[in-house]
Amino acid sequence: MQKILIVEDEKAISSVLSDILSDELKDYEIQVAEDGLEGYKSIEKDDFALVISDIKMPKVSGTELLKQALALKPETTFVMISGHADIDTAVDCLKDGAYDFISKPIDINRLITSVKNALDKEKLAKENKTLQKENVTLKKKVNKKYQMIGQSPALKKIQDMIEKVATSDARVLITGPNGAGKELVAHAIHAQSDRSKGPMIEVNCAAIPSELIESELFGHVKGSFTGAIKDKQGKFELANNGTIFLDEIGDMSLIAQAKVLRALQESKVSPVGSDKEIKVDVRVLAATNKNMQKEIEAGRFREDLYHRLSVIEIYVPALDERKEDIELLVRHFAKLVADEQGNAAREFAPEAIKALEAFSWTGNIRELRNVVERLIILGGSPVSEKDVEAFVRK
């Protein structure tokens, strides 16, 4: 049962208030403190939905109690009462955090209305806090799908960066070798962003022929080129109010780069074969395994587009730079493979883990995942060092 505390040095008044509130508020327990010091001690050891406090009291005044109690428990709701106060005192109490101020002699109807409103406000505040916690929990569940496994300083640095940039709309360029987890970083940024309810559209710029990349990104109209048998929406338009992830951006043609730059500058796209401009609200994330400065110097990538894309740059290190994460990754992948196959997760002997840590992982995390699956299929139970020697390349 929730509690209400009455802090009042005049017993006749505290008794009357206690009786009235007990009748009006059946779901609340009413407690009484005889002065400010006793009131503070009560607040210190217990939580109250509402505190009704006199101002002029021995030991600790009501104004001092208000300040001290809110410093200790900022969520506490106060209604102040006094027969010796002026307008300035009332204003000061409200400035210090009191919900309301009532003068003596107390108008009972006014007091009951104020108390009920204060309790409604306190209830709403709690419900809001609960919703915020649920949102955090939901966000964590969303992020779990894209959880990055490990405890290395390198990974911690990436996770800290993701947390900082996710809630902004800043463009992020994710760099690092193939198989290191750049796509995972992009998904984590989107999942933790305010756009998480919107779409995340992925485009592998290296996998699309240069003559088709413009159509993929910006769409086309029927008859704009051979094979364009109907209108088609582009990836930018499909990602509206969400995120577009341009993977392997370093492989994009210069012509497509120019159009992407225009789309970023104007937040508009034009389908191939059309003069129509379509307004888009899209956050752009990009990734590459190339040295962009060398690509710019060689004339293969536009410097102005690079600066547009790399407001924030996140480097994802090779697995060889974070070998302390291999054991956790192996156990994580073993569970994933087991879940996919409907089996119990296979154990890996400590010697097998050490053997895997000794390898140079040129294929990075992607290669490690494949190796774990191979060992689970071909190795013993638990997977041994001999299994690693037999089924993993030297």
UniProtKB/TrEMBL annotation:
Q: Which GO terms describe its molecular function?
A: ATP binding
What name appears for this protein in its UniProt entry? Sigma-54-dependent Fis family transcriptional regulator
Keywords for this protein = ATP-binding, Nucleotide-binding, Phosphoprotein
Q: List residues of the Sigma-54 factor interaction domain.
A: 148-377
GO BP term, example: regulation of DNA-templated transcription
Domain (Response regulatory) spans 3-119
Q: Which SUPFAM superfamilies match?
A: CheY-like, P-loop containing nucleoside triphosphate hydrolases
Q: Which organism is it from?
A: Planobacterium oryzisoli
Kindly give the InterPro entries that the UniProt entry links to this protein.
AAA+_ATPase, AAA_lid_NorR, CheY-like_superfamily, P-loop_NTPase, Sig_transdc_resp-reg_receiver, Sigma_54_int, Sigma_54_int_dom_ATP-bd_2
The answer to whether keyword Phosphoprotein applies is: yes
4-aspartylphosphate PTM sites in chain numbering: 54
